[in-house]
Design a protein that fits this description.
The complex is a heterodimer of chains A (341) and B (290). In chain A, 27% of the residues lie in helices and 28% in strands. Chain A has 10 helices and 16 strands. Chain B is of the alpha/beta class and 290 residues long. Chain B has one domain: Rossmann fold, CATH 3.40.50.620. Classes of the chains: A alpha/beta (341), B alpha/beta (290). Chains A and B meet through helix 3, helix 4, strand 5, strand 7 and strand 8 of A and helix 3, helix 4, strand 7, strand 9 and strand 13 of B. Strand 8 of chain A pairs antiparallel with strand 13 of chain B.
Chain lengths: 341, 290
Amino acid sequence: MNNIFVYCEITEERTVADVSLELLSKARKLAEELKCQLEAIVISDKVEGLEETLYPYGVDIINYAQDSRLFPYQTLPHFSIVTRLLKEKDAQICLFGATSIGRDLAPRVASFLRCGLTADCTSLEIGSHQDKKENKTYENLLYQIRPAFGGNIIATIINPETRPQMATVREGVMKKEIYDASHKGCVNMLDIEKYVSDSDFCIKVISREIEAQKINIKNSQIVVVGGYGMASGKDGFGLIHELAKVLGGEVGATRAAVDAGLAEHERQVGQTGVTIRPKLCISCGVSGAVQHRAGMDQSSKIISINTDPKAPINAIADYTIIGDAFEIIPKLIKHYKANTK
Amino acid sequence: MSLKIVVLAKQVPDTRNVGKDAMTEEGTVNRAALPAIFNPEDLNALEMALRIKDTVGDAEICVLTMGPSRAAEIIRDSLYRGADCGYVISDRKVAGSDTLATSYTISQGVKKLGKVDLVLAGRQAIDGDTAQVGPQVAEKLNIPQITYAEEVLSVDKDKICIKRRLERGVEVVESKYPCLVTVHGSAAECRFPIAKRVMKYKNALSEAEAAEAGKDCAKVWAERPYLKIGQWSAADINAEDSRLGLSGSPTKVKKIENVVLAAKESVNVENTDEGLDALVKELISSHIIG
């Protein structure tokens, strides 16, 4: 009991959304630290086979709610199921994606359960808290860390008294990581009649037009951009993809790199591509033509890796590393892994 | 039967236009230098309410806000743009409210207004970007919610049909009354203040504003009641003190770290193991990667 729960979003293709897998990866680590189990909540019209996706992320219990009326997502039926389940199981922590669905559902759930909810967390940690006024110490609280006030401050939020401790996290913020490919859990099939009532379906969905999930580097908080300088390597953008994956980010490219066939057009950053404003943009082998810079110069932090100290990109970079990206990227990955294990 | 619409609005510091003088020497935000504005998406919500009134004809629009006495400014602005009346919930007891305490307070205010058909609110406020208060007010009122509304496709005395803007597409839904709608920034922009209405309402004041300005408005208000902006205390909205302000807020701020915005200056990182390791450590400690 007192487990960690993750509300898993189901895509149009009836797969588990990436943001939910990212949350499960993080929640698994929190569960280890708290020595509790990890539970997934899956609400949809078809749930068969999702165990194969979920177990490797370290899920111990999958709570399935299946009914033809439960897809597409609607607030009230999902709200009724989630609140009843969290109450029944006395959940310690519950995480949601900061998506159209999560930001619609989580606040309503928190309001009903009268517990705290922190939106758009960028980091989640476990820690203690001393309330000097009350002379009380709280152990194993969830630190919900998020930027606030236009990104000018970083706040650590806690909910000392109320349970579950709730938070939403945007897609791409946490890293998606398989916990153990052979991990197995169990399924708890919910009896729908006990969780939803007909009045929960009072809003009529008239029509929907939802695009399939595709490459979308705009929403990523970390973008690793490769330029034409990466064309000289034998596996092209292989290292760029590896660095992006390790950091939990997306891959972007310059026009020259896209034209050379190193990346898909959807990844093109710049005047004729997309404009990105991530927390971190790592430009590898990018000279920095003005058309490219226009699409990325609003990134909060820019790191440039380039053999040419005079490359124009260096003028707008916060950090420049002069050298061969093919040597530097593997080193960055190595140091990142060493510092975050 | 007249359609009763409540628009929830908030006065916020303008975090979008953080100019040079808005930063202190230490590189932190100088809140006093930021102007207070009508939260942008709440203006979209007001416009949606005005369009619904244009369509159905018989409707009353009431704007409700919570904040210090100066928050009456956005009520006046709403009156200029076409709202029929407005109330400010103002009480020291509500200071330090998180979204849960805020939504409790607001929902008590909505209840005070009697039978309401539609509650409209901006999706989120720019000073917090949480988008939580709308759905939480809906829960407290025990009515359905329609979030991220972009356009009202049809509206009549019994039901409303709304196009929602989602991350990867659109959805059209229909609801009976009462319901709460949060309005997305992609919805129509709010119409400008109307000169005639500005003339009519420019002297509208709340009790607190009148007191601060040392004006005795008793006679004016008796003759022209529309010039009195409603003001409610926690007691007026029958709120339980334990659910207000800090004591009603389950979330506590443990720690605040200022992000120092230094001038853009390029740091040359040594292409060595030590240099790269230091860079990675710095990025992790400043929450950029993790």
